[in-house]
Amino acid sequence: MLPVKKRxxxxxxxxxxxVQIAIEDFEKxxxxxxxxxxxxxxxxxxxxxxxxxxxxxxxxxxxxxEDVDS
Length: 70
What we know:
A hairpin with a 5-residue loop joins strand 1 (6-10) and strand 2 (16-21). The chain is an alpha+beta fold. The chain is built from 2 helices and 2 strands, in the order ββαα. The radius of gyration is 18 Å and the shape is elongated. A two-stranded antiparallel sheet has the order 1-2. It has helices at residues 23-44, 53-69; strands at 6-10, 16-21. It has a domain at 1-47. Pfam families: RelB-like.
């Protein structure tokens, strides 16, 4: 498990309402989630038509560009 140092944000009644983490930890978690999602997508599409590596990389880059533009 990825060690994540957390800072809890409390409301007036001292109940936790949010968590702060370092940006480096957030980026690592984001990468882990993205890689997990890609692995799930690959598993779901076994037996489907496969792209050549260059076409797959270009498609993946286009998805990242769309995400940035959103």
